[in-house]
Amino acid sequence: MKEIFKGVFYALAMWVLRHYRRLSLDLARIEVTQWYLKAVQHSRLLVIGAVLALLGVMLLAAGFILFHVALFTLLPWSPCVKGSLLMALGLIYMLIPLLVIRAGLSEKNWLKYSKANELVARAARDMKSKS
Fold first, then answer.
1. Number of folded domains in the chain?
2. ∠ CA(42), CA(46), CA(33), 5° rounding?
3. How high is the pLDDT of residue 35?
4. Residue 70 CB: number of other CB atoms within 10 A?
5. Burial profile 113-131: b = 16 or more Cβ within 10 angstroms, e = fewer
6. How far apart are CA 60 and CA 102, in angstroms?
7. Are the C-beta atoms of residues 70 and 15 closer than 8 Å to each other?
8. How many C-alpha atoms does 35 have within 13 Å on its Cβ side?
């Protein structure tokens, strides 16, 4: 009789372990899939950011050239509207990308968008609650 109970218990334990292993693998697959999707999302955002940064650098170079063209147009020869317009466009094309790049490289923004400040706050709360 003892052997029968032992066999039934063993079979039941094996069934539970197989079922638990299957559930664990399913949960692990779901977690890995979520990580993969987040990685794809972050990669996409990285590529978009790189393209926008490259566009900003190109606009900065165009603004730099336009500014000098306007400067040479306005020099002692005849100040005219075309030169003023070129200078204004050159300054705008230089300032906007510089401001965008400045904001993009800001440590405050990096902490905000990477949610690192939340992790630090959570770790500080955890440390405070443990002591």
1. 1
2. 20
3. 81
4. 20
5. eeeeeeeeeeeeeeeeeee
6. 13
7. no
8. 6
Give dist(CA 33, CA 25) in Å, integer: 12
Q: How far apart are CA 96 and CA 57, in angstroms?
A: 11
**Residue entry with tokens 């063993």:** 10
3-state class of 1 per DSSP?
coil
Measured at the CA of 53, the angle between CA 47 and CA 55, to 5 degrees, comes to 105
Mean pLDDT per 10-residue interval, the chain, length 131 residues = 74 74 75 82 87 89 84 72 79 89 81 74 69 59
d(CA 27, CA 24): 5
Domain around 28: 2-130
Give the Cβ contact number of residue 100 at 10 Å: 16
d(Cα 92, Cα 86) in Å, to the nearest integer?
A: 10
Residue with tokens 């899939």: 33
What Å distances lie between residue 109 and 54, 104, 113, CA to CA? 19, 7, 6
Q: What pLDDT is stored for residue 126 in this prediction?
A: 66
